[in-house]
Design goal:
Its EC number is 3.1.1.29. This protein is an alpha/beta fold. It has a single domain, classed as Peptidyl-tRNA hydrolase (Rossmann fold), CATH 3.40.50. Helix content is 35%, strand content 21%. The protein has helices at residues 24-34, 74-83, 117-126, 147-151, 157-180, 182-189, and strands spanning 4-9, 41-43, 47-53, 60-66, 91-97, 105-109, 132-137. The protein has a 7-stranded mixed β-sheet with strand order 2-3-4-1-5-7-6, with helices on both faces. A hairpin with a 6-residue loop joins strand 3 (47-53) and strand 4. Helix 1 packs across helix 5 and helix 5 packs antiparallel against helix 6. The chain is globular and about 45 Å long. The termini are far apart.
C-alpha cells in the first residue's frame, strides 16, 4: 500500500525504562495511539503495533514499538516494513537526540547515526539510512556524567513539566511529515517559537 507509513518509536522494553530519556520515541507513538483511542497489539515481528489512520480515509499509519532493546531495533523495523509493504521513504523513526537541547525537535532524512545504536541498527536492517527521523532533544548530560547513564535516567522534575508538550509537538511533527512532506514539516517545526 503506497499510502501506508510505518512510524517507529524507539526505546527499551519494560517498566524500568518507560520513563527514561531513551524512551521518548515510544512516548511519542504512545501519544499518537492514545490520541486516536487505539490499543497496542502484539505483532509476530517482535513488536507492538497500532494500525490507525492519519485522518478518516487515509493515509494509514502503522505505529510500532519494538519488544526488544534499542540496539536491536532493526530486526523488528525491517520485518514490519516487509509485512506492511512500506518502503524506507515511508518509514519515520522517532528517537532521543543528545546533540539537540531538551525541548527542541529536528526533522531530517538520511545521514549518519551520530552514535545512536537504534538508528544504526535500523539503517543496517533496512539497508539504507534514507528514512525520516523525528529527533527529540534530550540535551547533553551535565558535567562529566556518562551519556549512557544520562539517556537511561528519568527526566528531571523541571523537564517533566514541559515533557508532555514536547511529546505532543513530536507527535504533531510525525503527522506533518505524513500529510505535508518532510520539507514543509521542517519549515514549521524548525521555525523559531
Amino acid at each position: 500500500m503506497a499510502d501506508t507509513w510505518l512510524v517507529i518509536g524507539l526505546g527499551n522494553p519494560g517498566p524500568r525504562y518507560e520513563r527514561t530519556r531513551h524512551n521518548v520515541g515510544q512516548m511519542v507513538v504512545d501519544d499518537l495511539a492514545s490520541g486516536r483511542g487505539e490499543a497496542w497489539k502484539q505483532h509476530k515481528a517482535g513488536a507492538r503495533v497500532v494500525e490507525t489512520w492519519l485522518r478518516p480515509g487515509g493515509p494509514k499509519l502503522v505505529l510500532a514499538k519494538s519488544n526488544g532493546f534499542m540496539n536491536t531495533s532493526g530486526g523488528p523495523a525491517s520485518a514490519l516494513a516487509k509485512f506492511y509493504s512500506v518502503a524506507p521513504d515511508h518509514v519515520i523513526v522517532v528517537h532521543d537526540e543528545l546533540d539537540i537541547p531538551f525541548d527542541a525537535l529536528k526533522l531530517k532524512t538520511g545521514g549518519g547515526h551520530g552514535g545512536h545504536n537504534g538508528i544504526r541498527d535500523i539503517a543496517k536492517a533496512l539497508d539504507t539510512p534514507d528514512f525520516a527521523r523525528v529527533r527529540v532533544g534530550i540535551g547533553r548530560p551535565p558535567g562529566r556524567q556518562d551519556p549512557a547513564d544520562w539517556v537511561l535516567g528519568e527526566f528531571s522534575a523541571t523537564e517533566r513539566k514541559t515533557l508532555p508538550i514536547l511529546v505532543s509537538d513530536a507527535a504533531e511533527a510525525v503527522e506533518l511529515i505524513v500529510s505535508e512532506g518532510l520539507t514543509a514539516a521542517q519549515q514549521k517545526v524548525h521555525a523559531p517559537r
